[in-house]
Amino acid sequence: MDRLRRNAADGCRVNWVRFGRLIVVAALLAMAVNYVDPGKLPGHFDRRLLVAALAMQPFVVAWILLTAWRHGLIVARQPVRLGITVPAVVLSVGLNALLPARASEALKATYLAEHAGLPMSRCVGAVLLERLADLFIVGLMGWGALILLNLEMAPAVLAGAVSLPLILLALMAILAGKSSSAADRFRLSPLRHFFAMLSAVADQFNPAGFMRLFGLGLLIWSSGFAMMAVFMGLGGSRTLSGLQYLAVFVVTTIGSAVPALPGGIGTYQAAGTFILTRYGFSTEEALALTTAAQLSVYLPTLALAILVSIRDGVGLRSLLGRARSAS
């Protein structure tokens, strides 16, 4: 009976999630119809965007290598070589264009567990630890951009943007090594599951572990910022200041995190168009810039993901099935 109730609850949750995604997609389509002139859009996909896409590829490579390096240091007590972590990151990033973020991250954990001989709990815990660190870094970047640009925003929103990752980090530090016992004291299964995943990587909760986590995290996000700034600087008709590029980067990052379509498709463009039009870009140019920027990351990594699947003798359909089952 309990199992039937759990299955029914999961089914209701999935239906509500799908309903929410449909609402977001409908809202995005309505915005496109009302604010975008289809006749002007093709003219913005010109040679300038192609040059910008090519110029950003070295930064895409650096971003992937840094992400793989950090993951290899966190996921095991002995560093995992790049020959294993790079394909895992490539699969996760490339297939994120086809999968929800949670499923693509689960795919990375599944690949590491199979090819590095690590426990699945350890791989999932490492992914969670990375996401919490990234939340903290993006929160600080957004906080700084909002303050330096003097954007109007309620103090409570600013405080929440910074305090949430700080609270999460404090919980991580306090409960390091005690995650299992803490999980037992919580009766809510999401909290039990959360602390159980963190307990698998409790050995990372030390000064050296945090330095690796956040030091490499800053390098990763800096390469991501450079990637976006180079593309916008070469592809756009206007030149922005460094702080304005930072604001665009933070806003589009937040937009891409909205769980509507895989890879943040649609919400990334909406967020980018919102901030770029404030800086003088037309709606059509802003939409073309953000679409081309996203494709410049997803198309090469998706092609590499296909090559990885061919090399390992695993079809994409099988990989997608593994990711969905693991998530």
TrEMBL record:
PANTHER family: UPF0104 MEMBRANE PROTEIN MJ1595. Its main location: membrane. Keywords: Cell membrane, Membrane, Transmembrane, Transmembrane helix. InterPro entries: L-PG_synthase/AglD (IPR022791). This is Flippase-like domain-containing protein. It is a multi-pass membrane protein. It is found in: Cell membrane. The lineage of its organism: Bacteria, Pseudomonadati, Pseudomonadota, Betaproteobacteria, Nitrosomonadales. GO terms for cellular component: plasma membrane. The keyword Membrane applies. The chain crosses the membrane at residues 20-37, 49-69, 81-99, 132-151, 157-177, 213-234, 246-266, 286-310. It holds the Pfam family LPG_synthase_TM.
